[in-house]
Amino acid sequence: MNHRLTTQGRIVKTGIQNFFRNATLAVAAIAVMAITLTIILFSVIANATFTNTVTQITDRIDVSFFLKDEVTDQQREGFISELNNRPDVESVTYRSKDQVLAQYKEDNKDNTDTLLAISQTENPLPATINIKPTDPTELDGLRAFLAQKQVVALQSDSVNDGGTRQTAVDNITGAAVFFQRAGLVGVLVFTFVSILIIFNTIRMTIFNRRDELTIMRLLGASSWYIRGPFVVETIIYGLVSALLSVGICQLIFAISTSAFGASSLGLLDISFASTYFSRNFIIILTSQLAVGILIGAASSAIATQRYLKFKTSK
Amino acid sequence: MILLDRVSKTYGKSHPALDRISMHIEPKEFVIIIGKSGAGKSTLLKLLTREEKPTSGKIIVGGVDYDKLKDSKIPLLRRKIGVVFQDFKLLPNKTVFENVAFALEIVGYGNREINHTVPRVLDIVGLAGKEKRYPLELSGGERQRVAIARSIVRQPKILIADEPTGNLDPKHAWDVIKVLEKINRFGTTVLLTTHNTDIVNKLKRRVITLSDGHVASDRSNAEYGGEAK
Lengths: 314, 229
Fold this sequence. Notes:
Order of helices and strands of chain B: EEEHEEHEHHHEHEHEEH
Distance between the termini of chain B: 30 Å
Strand content of chain B: 15-25%
CATH topology of the domain at 2-89 and 157-224 in chain B: Rossmann fold
Distance between the termini of chain A: 35 Å
Number of helices of chain A: 12
Largest sheet of chain A: 3 strands, antiparallel
Strand content of chain A: 5-15%
Oligomer: heterodimer
Radius of gyration of chain B: 17 Å
Strand order of the largest sheet of chain B: 6-7-8-3-9-10
Structural class of chain B: alpha/beta
CATH class of the domain at 2-89 and 157-224 in chain B: Alpha Beta
């Protein structure tokens, strides 16, 4: 047990020494790993930001149904009850003519001309039923229902179903899907490149230290004793790269929010992204470290298995 | 201690480097293996340290049957066998002390045990006081004695010395041989390959002659006397 602990300690120590000894070789591996981790981090943050934007907009999407003044209370209640029973309707809110007028006045309290004009006539605004759909992206069923003859007969004006906001949601959802796919491709490509570069770095290190490795083997060092320091070394690559990627993201947010005073970058809500980043900093940092360690350890474990010959030739 | 039974080794489709050789070496024996270049000496030693697998035949060393030895257990086998090479195979960036300590470090010895054991072994090979020197600051004979110290520091039952005097002048060569004899007196089985006929004649030990992959002769010290001149 004691021997084992001593051996583990020596493996870690040798790995750290090798990291500093191979610093120049390590730069390329760390740079590519840092780019990979930054892309992963950006994908995660962009995804969360787009999801938030879509949620915010879809929350505001509802269908406004304007009632004719002649509609009786019984007809109205029957219609509301029918709407409430629909699975694609989340909630229904009724506002009487007076309530709509009050709201209108409140919305236009600074516009005296409009207020004057409306006060000189009888309330021209219709009573309104606001329908909040369960899924704002699936309005076809509801539209078809509202287009039925007996329903249209209750209606004073055409239905306002938030078409413009729907277009915005579609745009953002489209962008989110695009960024998710682009992010995934980027992550895959750069992870592959990182692994290749780590492979090459380890291969060169093994070549540089072939005499020492041969001696170790002949003296009876276990395969883990020989491979361990390489794995430790690449774990350090992962740790450094993870810290760099988190640092890069923090820098980008700091520059884009403070220096340019921007709140969004195209469709990306920078202020939310920045808040999301700072709120989840510990989780993000831990995850980045974990991914960095995983990429480093896995690629060096495979590389040492491949390039260090432990099997006796026949 | 070492048993080879009809062991052959062929590389690719070439002529066999070893062809059905058999030998039995007792514990604590000092055996010299001689033969011209290409006779199969190095191949034989590589088979014993399991750097190579035989094409056919049986090898048992220290009770370990190589047929049943898994690759993962090779390090454990090598810890029981000390090996000395013609080119020393020392690490140039480590001191004499560190080179010897390296053999203990890789098997998990603690620093206290290392600090206790290494000076004693360096004393046995006559290198006391040179612990802090680097290999390049030493003569060829001294370097080879560092290599011997490293190979015996774990007190192996068997010491394999592959042409340890090949790169040394006669005086240093003889110093190295004296160290090997000393180790043999402590109870370690020594297997020495050499080209040096003077050493063979002076040592008067069992001599196995390899020729073209075969055991050409296997004679005790008395029988061998004078033939290698």
